[in-house]
Give the backbone structure.
Amino acid sequence: MDSSPILSVSDLAKTFSLGFLGAVPGFRRLPISVKGIAQRVEAVRGLSFAVEPGEIFGFLGPNGAGKTTTIKMLMGLIRPSAGSATLLGHALEPGNRRQRERIGYLPEQPYFYEHLRPMEFLDFYGGLFPMTAQERRRRARELLDRVGLGHALDRPIRKFSKGMVQRIGIAQALINAPELVILDEPMSGLDPLGRKEIRDLIFDLKQQGRTVFFSSHILQDVEQICDRVAIVVKGRLRRLGPIGELVEVGAQGTEVLVGGLQAPAVEALRLPATALGAAHRFVVADPAAVDGFVRAALDAGGRLISVTPQRRSLEDIFVEEARGA
Ligand SMILES: Nc1ncnc2c1ncn2[C@@H]1O[C@H](COP(=O)(O)OP(=O)(O)OP(=O)(O)O)[C@@H](O)[C@H]1O
Ligand SMILES: [Mg+2]
């Protein structure tokens, strides 16, 4: 396999101008209320990172971080204000069909021909790529089953629920068996089971040797499957690396749940306890002290329910980074 990045961005930036007032001399001195309706938005401020072939890469950031703007620049839908991007080893060429044929894309707000039924829609979309009609239909059927829409073949898309629309969007992104799959919030609108199904599907894509780059603002969506993540806040890259390194398991202490403890025994353990029904929850700060604490709790007549290393949530990191930004 080629070891050069399959996707890379270098100093990529995008500034949107809102209204004409931004160009007026003395704009900086205008009252906030006026600026509010007429300002420049620096959505992406010099992003650089690379995605290796075969990776699942999570592109994370809170709302407004610039994820969709970056993805739209990657897809050639909007023009960067500065910097560059390469896809599949070549500079981005919006009109390059061969490049496009190797990429699958799920937009954040997909628009579909709503009168079509799922098979018709995927057949139509597959028609944009070099596939025989038979191949198109076979893949469409396979993908509809894979995204859990096999039961809705007779329903026009306008009668789909939000989660179903998201699922057909994902099927659409995969119809051309792309090497590189770019998904903007693929789990949005899905319930927990649906999120898991999409995680499994993304993992399958990796098993097939494909590369997946997807955006999300939810830790659970990325932690189990991403090889690496980039965390973007206010248009800037704040963290890059394997998720385990970024959220340091155990950094926030270890939660120990113990049942069956009488009040004097709880006191004797000398750690603040929260009563949860008949159980007590303790947080042991020092990882090296966990074994000793568990032993003491058992000796005091307790019954061990669980021991869970705590970690900073992605939200904590967002807040931390946003403060530092
Ligand atoms: N066409 C546009 N004109 C002006 N500002 C824009 C435009 N598109 C995006 N922005 C602004 O750029 C910033 C980044 O938006 P973007 O949609 O890229 O964020 P995001 O990370 O995808 O957020 P979300 O998680 O909510 O989808 C926001 O402040 C947004 O208002
Ligand atoms: Mg977005």
User: Anything to note?
Assistant: The radius of gyration is 24 Å. Residues 16, 18, 41, 43, 61, 63-69, 108, 217 surround adenosine-5'-triphosphate (ligand 1) (CB under 6 Å). The mean pLDDT is 88. The chain is about 35% helix and 25% strand.
